[in-house]
Each structure stands twice: as C-alpha cells, then as structure tokens.
Amino acid sequence: MFRTYLLLLLSIFLSQTSTAQRRLTEATLHYTVESATADSSIQALLQGVSYTCYIKGVNSRMELASDMGKESTLLLGKTGQVIILKELGTQHYLTRLASKQWQQMNQLYDDAQLKLLPDTLLISGYSCKKALFQFGDGTTREVWYTIQVVPIYREFQLFAKKIPGLLVQYEATIGKAPVLFKLKGVNYNPVQAALFDVPEKGFRILKWEQAESVNDNQ
Fold it and tell me: What is the pTM for the complete model shown?
C-alpha cells in the first residue's frame, strides 16, 4: 500500500513537471536589442534593431535586422553547414562555413566558465534564473534564463549550449557596443521550411576572410 502511494506521488510530480516545462523544438523567438550603457549615440544607433531566432528541429536561423540591412545565420543541423547571409541595400553576400570553422569562430564561448547563481527575476512573464559567464581575459557576461521552456537543440545561440533552459535576457556586443538582448515573445506556430533554403541566385559568394573585411568596412 505504501509503495502504491509513493508511485502515485511520483506520477503526480512528473505530471506537474512536464506541464510546467515546455520542450522547444519549433518556434520563433523575438528579441529586442537595447544599449547596455547610457551612451545616447549607441542608443540612437540601436533604434529599430531587432533579433529573431527561427527554430525548426535541428535547423535554426538567426536574423539581426536594422535600417541599414540584415544579417542572417543559418545553422543546418543535418549537414553541420553554416550559411551567413548579409543584405546591405543592393549588396547581397553569402558565406559558407564548415562546422569546424564555426566552432573555431566561437571557441571563446565554448571555453568560457559558467556559474549558475541563485538569483531569480521575472522577465517578460518568465520566471528566470541568473548565470554568469567568465572568459579567459577575465571579462564576464550576465545572462538570465528560464527552465519553463527548454530548447532541445541549442546551437542557435552562443551562450545557449551550456544553459539549462531558454535565454531570456543576456549581455553581448555588436561591433564594440555593449548591448542587451531581451526576449519579447515566443511564437509557437509552424516555421516555414523555406527559411532554411540556401539562396542560389542574387548573392555574391565570399570566403570567410572576405566576409570579415566587409564587416570591417561597415
């Protein structure tokens, strides 16, 4: 009888846990991008800037858009290929990266030390926990995440691979400007498969070294 009672309690607990926690396999995440400082010039530059993540199974697409143009990063999980698209007015560029190149580019984040903290905060309707990343040069980045939504495939955000939940708010940089990404909303409607198609026309093919020089000239 006692064993039956324990099993009943366990089943109720597991049911409540699964209800409270949503596994994220397909969704569109909308983030606002704000200045992390009081610098009015940076605040002006970030007016109208948005960040959107499209997730569909093992594929993801991240778009950073502004009045000047749009940069999209496609992570194609089945092939491991990474596609970077830059649309700057009439100039369109496409760069292909192998998974090893992508990993080398982001080694800084892979090597960072993660510290989970007890602090909690309600952000955008999500109960969030705090974490701190410390990099090799001694600098730190603060992130807030929720375990109410847990991505199954976490490659779509540089901090996400080590975080036990969904990033709701985090510090980063655009160029040299310190910025704050904050989750505005999650749309669970089906994501169009066409978003992960690689353009065959209208884009100039650039090697990574060439793409970096384009970034430096912006």
Answer: 0.83
Q: Can you spell out the DSSP letters for 113-127? A: EEEEEEEEEEETTEE
Contacts of 205 (CB under 8 A, 6+ apart): 93, 94, 95, 96
CB-based contact 117:129 (threshold 8 Å)? yes
DSSP for 169-196, written as a single string? EEEEEETTEEEEEEEEEEE-SPPPGGGG
Per-residue burial over 90-122, b = 16 or more CB atoms within 10 Å of its CB, e = otherwise:
eebbbbbbeeeebeeeeeebeebeeeeeeeeee
Q: At the fourth CATH level, which superfamily is domain 21-212? A: Lipoprotein localisation LolA/LolB/LppX (2.50.20.10)
Encode the chain (218 residues) as per-residue pLDDT tens digits: 545 544 444 444 444 444 468 899 999 999 999 888 777 777 777 888 999 999 999 999 999 999 889 999 999 988 889 999 999 999 999 999 988 888 888 888 888 999 999 999 999 999 999 999 999 888 999 999 999 999 988 888 877 788 999 999 999 887 778 899 999 999 999 999 999 999 989 999 998 766 665 555 54
CA-closest candidate to residue 49, choices 181, 186, 187: 181
- CA distance linking residue 82 with residue 203, whole number of Å: 16
